[in-house]
């Protein structure tokens, strides 16, 4: 890490020079929300930023990492102590202001690198609105979703999805300080109910609070996580993301 | 059709009586957008309403069909003549006003029955906002997505997705007046480019206009559509949706 | 009916061709609200659309009918079962999005054909805002107000104004399925009170709920309605509206 | 003048005492806009305030006069030098803040006394929104519209409507400093055109700028104005308004 | 007073002529709020307007006085009878509309002449937003803050700040009708508490209601006020303000 | 550092336990903006967070540190490469969402610890709005403004204010990685002009871009900075801030 352009660590003359080659700004987007008893609440923000650092290093000198948007849309988690959630409109306003500021510096292509599933619908709306409103190219990606096939074949505990085998593995590789290894627990899933009828793959979708689904806030079995799996997911996704970015920059 | 409660066709004393048993309002949501040379632009609105009539009949006397929201978020299609698109915020405002009005009549559970994929991200945001803001239960569903397995096994022309084998089949069963049978054409897909790198399953997501992807506005082969396939998709989805609604009403 | 351009029933290539002559979009605007025991709640939306079809036929090939805005500002009626009301800001947002979309297709003149008195103040504000904001020509008209003189001389039951001799007559001509002929009742007017001091012609204006004024939701005597009167009102208004549109298109 | 409660001229202990009897706040609403070569641009604001002083004196000790809202919706006049126009949303926001502040002091009934026709549509929307949002009684009235019959029989120059026989007469009685008597001119009406097809009584309504209609900004013949006519209009309207207010306070 | 351009007292042809030399609009901004037992609630609005008249006379023919914004952000005073407060967003909306209207008349430089401290934060935000949004020069000034040194050396009763020696002195010179000379009282300061820890110069800032700090609504000793001090403050500030305006117009 | 409650580094069960004693949330607020050639652009965000860590440690177990708001209102700096600025409304929206989320966890007192002067006006408005809207206690403080007297007596290079002797000194103590010691430069102040007439202490205030005032983006002489001065400023301010917080918590 370190050889990519990281805006928070640069002076303005350094930025000025970097802008001669930069064609894309990468915006790490996280969340501040409960991650069960074994991960700290900044988990998504830290993972997005670490992944972002790797990505801009990979794309150097074409990309620049912006400050991290460290809170996101976490309304499902609001009943767990400490969770802070932005309204979808607030998140879009933050992104709009960032894009407009960076447009002023000559950047017109943006990738929101998102570590939190709860932000995806808002990003879909943001892509629609901001592309047309500002005349920019707006891309977004879940940090390691590009390695979905590796997840499908490697993750033993299903379903997974929050502070789980996948997420803890990624943290063990990217930011082990996020993990309380002594507290690792499997998800304490609640009996089927309204929540289970709204899970992906069911006819209906809808809003439910996380405690309806899991007593400890986890979905999946974090005790099966490993640094090795994390490394594989991160490295695979990173290569694919970098290639995908190069492709759209060229197209 | 006809034995369900359809609000547009009722007087207020009839509504008053219906409200003694009604526990859910079904809101048909469509779009007004191009559907290639062989479907009329109201396609999604009409299909949503027809499906909604079947669903409230199935659920009678527990459900009531509201007026159809006949325009939606169709920004991807704006460059094709005739398309009209609501901003995501406008669509949410319309839904909010409908829910608040109906809450005043004692209804607190809502299902938006959506026929247009471009509305889904906005509905995700709406579910998050309106559930918490109004204290209601807010569900949403794509009209026939509950029959995804039938689509996977029955549809020959892939990828499909817009004015295609699936959609024309559904229309032939539900509303054949939407189809110009003499004009049926397969999608005129453009060469791979930026658009193809942003299709589902790729690492990046982002906004693109439909004409980048298809010259005639279609994705899939409408010439393979049949009323029989439409009937199977609609009937399968309908049974599953109705059961899913009963389940959440009971839970 | 049918020889005018009706956007909901056209494919995009057909719209493209129509746009070569079209100079005005006609937007039918209704409401979803109680109309007493003898009219269904979609009354205003259906009448606006039917009238719109006649008008674009009359103006063919200069005009095109957009999808109907089927809900409007009906706050006065919210205490009657089934009424759904949009906030004035929501209605303006819907109109703005429609106008902007249609501007993209080359149309810059618009006529909102409104069947519901409760929308008029909002349309006045919309005309002011949208004309200046979008640089369009924005016209609006009550569907049959152009035949005010015929109403004054032909309508026997006064005051009239809601689900009354006039409105039921128009429905009997344009859309008889809206009328429950067996249930026709005169308005059940309440004793004079705050509401009567706020009726048109009094020094003060202000908001009141409809049930303060009429127990069954009607103002006027629907039992005196006739298809003949409806035809005369509609045909007179239609000729005058069409001429008025031609005049502003020429000026 | 002077024996009514005028908030701008009171200290807080005086207001506190007045609130023991006050049941209605009267809000004068004007405009800042051109009034031709013979009236100053604050005309509507000054007339509303003067009329308001008379009205609260008449209603003493039941009513209290608030500060004047001295600018309104004057978009039609924006092309004449000096005109300042508030957006409709801004005017509603100002009224909302005034009502909420005064609700905190125990007042729940409000009369907007409006001297400018261009504000009426916005007041209609405000009445609808603010009544329901704040739970208040919201009334509005044009300052001398209650004397419409007197106008119809006494005003010689028709049509009238802006800086005309009526308005100059009222000013000569209420605030003669607004009038440049040496500059009095009849309206310099433009040839018929789009504007004349949108005047009241025509099938279509719509927005047009005042200079399309009148070269000097006036409609009507100010040279026929008299203090006597002004006095009659003002005194008649005042008595009727005061009675109407007493009636709604009692109902 | 009187030889400056005062928009409220001009006709449009007079404004048209004035605009040939005018380079700056001066917007008086006040408040409607309690000023203790010895000043009327319109105090700030009246002082701002009087000061504005003097300033445009001083700057004649370069400046023009707009209508006074007579209410401002007075939330701290809302618990005293009669206070009316605008939300900060409402005040900014009013200013935006004024600036946009006046831009249409060719003015691009604005000075908000503010008599009320509670408006300052909002004006800071307005300066930031409106400058960039409208491309104007936006200046603001407290009416007599330019004479801060004279205050420091001449005012005996400290702390001062509301309906005090300074403010009553200014009123005795500019608008003696605002003062109830028989009721003059020193501020009835409350015992130290949360409010005193939030006064200027303390580590923390924050919102508190005025009655926490002063029982009669005054800060400072109005009994020591004099017309002479008022004249000195006003005349000193006026000269400095006028010079400062000339300097920025020249730079 | 480390013995205070830092929300980003805690799990939800740890937060739950902490909430038993916590009475105040400290929200670090920074900016992302140019700090001349010798400080990185995240300077204000990092200093706010470091200072926040010290403060919650000092107040332990009464206070909890929230995630840092790392971008703020930096419009003055937008023309220097890399600066990102939030609109004032966006910053208020972010703070509102944070406060509402934390209210749900039982916290009702908040201190925004702000390292950037450009945020102060927005915080003034936020304090006014959010206090009344949410019913919370909302405090804000510049990080080291409580040591103003130490600055006045210790700082040699005046004026100072941005990436200067004071700020670099604080960074050398709190976060030396922000400083490029080899690049330290005094401010490259521009000749007097419009900007100098708008500096604090002048009669007029208004918006100007930073490059009008300083070519390298600095105000003050960073070459005179020292870790010792930074330590004194930070430690003095910290003790005073902590005491001020304890005082308001007790009052």
From TrEMBL, chains A, B, C, D, E, F:
Q: Tell me its cofactors.
A: Zn(2+)
GO BP, sorted A to Z: riboflavin biosynthetic process
Q: Which UniProt keywords are listed? A: Hydrolase, Metal-binding, Zinc
What would you give as a GO molecular function for this chain, any one?
Answer: hydrolase activity, acting on carbon-nitrogen (but not peptide) bonds, in linear amides
Against Gene3D superfamilies, the record matches this protein to: Creatininase (3.40.50.10310)
Residue spans crossing the bilayer: none
| Record-linked InterPro entries | Creatininase-like_sf (IPR024087), Creatininase/forma_Hydrolase (IPR003785)
Record's superkingdom?
A: Bacteria
For this chain, the family text in UniProt reads: Belongs to the creatininase superfamily.
The name this protein goes by in its record? Creatininase family protein
The species this protein belongs to is Paenibacillus sabuli
């Amino acid at each position: 890490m370190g050889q990519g352009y990281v805006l928070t660590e640069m002076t303005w003359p350094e930025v000025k020079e970097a802008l001669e080659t930069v064609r894309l700004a990468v915006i790490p987007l996280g969340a501040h929300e409960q991650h069960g008893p074994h991960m700290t609440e900044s988990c998504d923000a830290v993972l997005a930023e670490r992944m972002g650092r790797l990505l801009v290093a990979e794309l150097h000198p074409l990309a620049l990492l912006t400050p991290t948007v460290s809170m996101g849309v976490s309304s499902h988690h609001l009943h767990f102590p400490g969770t802070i959630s932005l309204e979808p409109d607030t998140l879009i306003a933050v992104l709009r202001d960032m894009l407009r500021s960076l447009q002023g510096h000559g950047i017109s292509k943006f990738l929101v690198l998102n570590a939190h599933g709860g932000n995806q619908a808002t990003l879909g709306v943001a892509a629609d609105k901001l592309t047309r409103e500002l005349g920019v190219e707006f891309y977004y990606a879940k940090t390691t979703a590009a390695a979905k096939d590796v997840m499908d074949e490697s993750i033993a505990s299903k379903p997974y999805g929050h502070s789980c085998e996948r997420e803890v593995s990624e943290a063990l590789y990217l930011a082990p300080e996020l993990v309380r290894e002594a507290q690792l627990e499997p998800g304490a899933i609640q009996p089927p109910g309204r929540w289970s009828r709204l899970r992906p793959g069911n006819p209906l979708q809808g809003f439910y609070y996380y405690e309806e689904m899991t007593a400890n806030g986890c979905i999946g079995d974090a005790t099966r996580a490993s640094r090795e799996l994390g490394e594989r997911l991160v490295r695979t996704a990173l290569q694919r993301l970098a290639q995908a970015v190069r492709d759209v920059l060229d197209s």
